Amino acid sequence: MSLPTVFISYNPDSDLEQTLAVRLHTIGAVSGFDMLLPDRSRHSKTISLETKNRINIASYFILFSTSPLSAVVQQEIAWAFDRLRDRSRIIIIYDQRVGKNLKNAENCTEIYVDLNAEPQSIASEITSKLKSIPKNGSGDFSSGMGALLLTGLGLFALASILDDSFSKPKKRSGKTTARKKPAKKTTKTKRRV
Length: 193
Hints:
The chain is of the alpha/beta class. The protein has one domain: Rossmann fold (3-Layer(aba) Sandwich), CATH 3.40.50. The chain is built from 5 helices and 5 strands. It has helices at 15-30, 49-57, 71-83, 119-131, 141-166; strands at residues 5-9, 34-36, 60-65, 90-95, 109-113. A 5-stranded parallel beta sheet has the order 2-1-3-4-5, sandwiched between helices. Helix 3 (71-83) links the parallel strand 3 (60-65) and strand 4. The longest helix has 26 residues, at 141-166. This is TIR domain-containing protein. The chain crosses the membrane at residues 141-162.
């Protein structure tokens, strides 16, 4: 039996979320899931017809909601709310440091992740949440989806650590002085008349 179709949404203004969504898309596709991403550009203001079609055929909707939601992401989640009858199949992963930033998410599967927690603790939280989602078909789904989400969270944790380490330029101590450019060497050539 084939694994279900999964739509992944991300904030276009967040390079971190976009990178995670693309990586999760690739990992999910390799693992046998039919993975879908939004059809939009970075500056899209409205949901596209193609994105609506992709959400319509998805069995699950995943949103990494780690930063303020853009207008187009709000439209995508509203479309998913209208189309997915079983809201438990809408999986929203929040960063505990940011907290819940989505209204009207009742009956959705919401997971709050403490990136400082032990991986086993994070895995247990996700597994317990996924077991609460009604299964439709293959019993392998929750373990497969759990592995997929754990991989995504691992990528999120790694990116978060790297972002904290490399995003802030280090201040130099003392005065900074401008370097002088080396003088150009000029050669004179004799002109013949």
